[in-house]
Amino acid sequence: MGRNHPASATVNLCGDIIDPYPTPRLGQTLQESFSRYELESTLLQIAGNYSWTWDLEARQLFSRIPSVNGDSGLHPAERIRLLSEDAWATLIADREFAALARSAHSRIPPALAVTGPDTVAYFSPEFGVSEMLPQYSGGLGILAGDHLKAASDLRMPMLAVGLFYRDGFFVQALEDGEQRERYVTNNPRFLGLEATPARVPLQLADREVIARVWRADVGSTQLYLLDTDLEINDEQGRRVSDRLYAGDREHRIRQELLMGVGGIRALRQLGFDPPKFHLNEGHAGFLALELIADEMAKGFTLEEAIWAVKGRVVFTTHTPVPAGIDKFAPDLMRKYLAVWADRYGVDMDQLLQLGILPGSDDHFNMAAFCVRIAGRCNGVSRLHGEVSRVMFREVPGGSDITSVTNGVHANTWVHPDLQRTFEDKLGSDWHRGDESVWAAVDDIDDDEIRSQFRKGKLELMDTAHRQIGEPTALDPDILTVGFARRFATYKRADLMLSDIDRVLEILRDSDQPIQFVFAGKSHPADEPGKEVMRRVIAFAADPASQGRFVFIPGYNMAVARAMYAGCNVWLNNPIRPREACGTSGEKAALNGGLNFSILDGWWDECFDGENGWAIPSSASEDPATRDREEAGYLYEILTGEIAPLYYEGNGAAPSPAWLDRVRHNWKTLGPFVTAARMVAEYEEHIYQVAQSD
Length: 693
What we know:
Elements: E1 10-11, E2 17-18, H1 29-32, H2 36-47, H3 56-63, H4 76-82, H5 85-93, H6 95-106, E3 120-123, H7 139-153, E4 158-163, E5 171-175, E6 178-182, E7 194-204, E8 207-218, E9 221-227, H8 235-238, H9 249-269, E10 276-280, H10 287-296, H11 302-310, E11 313-316, E12 327-328, H12 330-343, H13 348-353, E13 364-365, H14 366-373, E14 376-379, H15 382-391, E15 402-403, H16 410-413, H17 416-426, H18 435-438, H19 446-468, E16 479-484, H20 500-507, E17 514-519, H21 527-541, E18 549-552, H22 557-566, E19 569-572, H23 584-590, E20 594-598, H24 601-606, E21 612-615, H25 623-646, H26 656-669, H27 675-692
Parallel strand pairs: 3-4, 3-10, 4-9, 10-11, 11-14, 14-15, 16-17, 16-19, 17-18, 19-20, 20-21
Antiparallel strand pairs: 1-2, 5-6, 7-8, 8-9, 12-13
């Protein structure tokens, strides 16, 4: 299984080694046939590293393993352990399956030495590695997962730290036109995780909590997740890591102390002492207290200790509005940090001042704190960097905030068939972001692109059918517009519905038909966001929409992949400049979808007039006028430019002119939107620079 135990071992929840199977002799046994135990051990080793999620052969391998009780959504590790003896006999006799297993096993990325001078410890509250590891809610987590995968691809030494949420984030269902939240308890052993021997103590106000640590291998990157659900803890202690983004502010501060302070202690127990720490948002900012304490133990003052750790900490902010930043009231901070302040002789008021955002209230602002203690800070698009410099201009270091525009892990998000086309036409390194490589998309002919689009739409229709529970009226031959993201009010999922009569007119057009597919979640406590979702769901259910406006429930990474591959146009209409980046459009672009977006986030710097369309921003400061004007622009461009181009010439759709624009989209955006480019920029402009300052 993992690298802390013999390769042939399986580990139970307590970390005990059980059921030792003989390690397959790859040069001999696998070339001939498998025994029952050798095959199971080999498959578990493949399933034990999440590189299988972006390895086409490994995904094909696991797709051939029979589902258990009709549930094909189980993690491969669980499906493998639940197979019947008859199923094992069939797999053992299948020589093609054996060849796939042998090949996939040989490509498991080897471990990297992660204790060198260039090692980065990446801390994030969520990691969207796969829908099979439900430890994410949305864009922040997906970005974190893509970061780890790209670091593995580039062989960059990186560790990652977060929390293991037993109940994860909620599973979405619809009931009477409303979002309903359902929580599912996760068993780490059935998610390909391995127990480590670490037991991390942490004082949380009046109680000590002990956390165990699980490890997930993401290629060559090791992800460590802290979990307090241990019998040694009392009920409140066991609940610290129960759910992602749930509970009150006191629950949140406990989680953030566990992630930050506990995370560093976990790494040290496991023998790691990374020289650099990357904070993916401010949730893990309390790790600075542990680093500062190390320096104060040497006799440094608080100010001297902060300067000493600056070269070790980098901070990425993802939030363009102050309301989206975690803040804690002074009384809550005193309750949980007074022990630390007393231990190191720090005045509590002095400590609280480190988290004050001038011009705001007296709450401890985690992002302001991170800006103060980090040697290098960045936003996640060029425009977001500008917005962040204004937001934090009164915070020391705030005027120096730079930017690294987010990218996406191409092998995770591009449809497998399109990946094979890219490999054939562009070469095996197409996902690395080389402009000269992407120029070869001109060699992909019209029929091949049309075939790919149609296949993607058919798979999207299957996904919609499965998630909704009944067939939809979606048509694989119609121009398809997609919208999928968190239903926060500033993202304006209902902007399209500003003028219902105009929308119905668009949906009734039989000459240049358009269909819309929407998906996404709203935070359980976000009532305004839920109201936006109710409106979208209600319109989708209205017979007047003629089945050409569909809402897909149960949004997760699998649904998102189906949408990126099945939509011709990707719609994004946030209130500018509140979209920090908006990576969903980048994923759509790699799949050949053309972006139709407000000039916000990454699109503001990437739109060139030909690789998609821009929705003009209203100059009005009145929200109602702004929305009405921008909706008008949306309708005008959609019906006056987009649909006519798609159906141009009355021949095969999409038209040759549309496909030329798709190729231009690939040539201009393909080299830029990849996570490989993003992580390389972090290495050159953030990690190395921070350490040298």
